[in-house]
Write the structure tokens for this entry.
Amino acid sequence: MTDDRWQIAYLGYLVSAIGYSKMNPSVERFTGFAQVYDQVRPSPPEAIADLLLQFAKLETAQRVVDLGCGSGLSMMMWVGRTRSITGVETVLGYAARSRKTLF
């Protein structure tokens, strides 16, 4: 997907500036594993996106925001179900990996 409907925002610089990584060890815990993360994490079933759309009484979502999008694996279930998706990630390796997953 090479159009502007699919975006990945890396907020690591902002997170570092406010000291979040010092307060939350999760940021540091996941650093360095982006290349193998998808190998051990199962893909979410696409039925989840369908169920959320049904709950919201929508056929297609206008926008989906995936906070902590990681490698982008969970964003894939929204392909064809949303007009726009934005992934937000605080770990640089995962932000780069999610770009490769989506683009």
Remarks:
- The longest strand covers residues 6-10.
- Residues 14-21 have pLDDT under 50 and may be disordered.
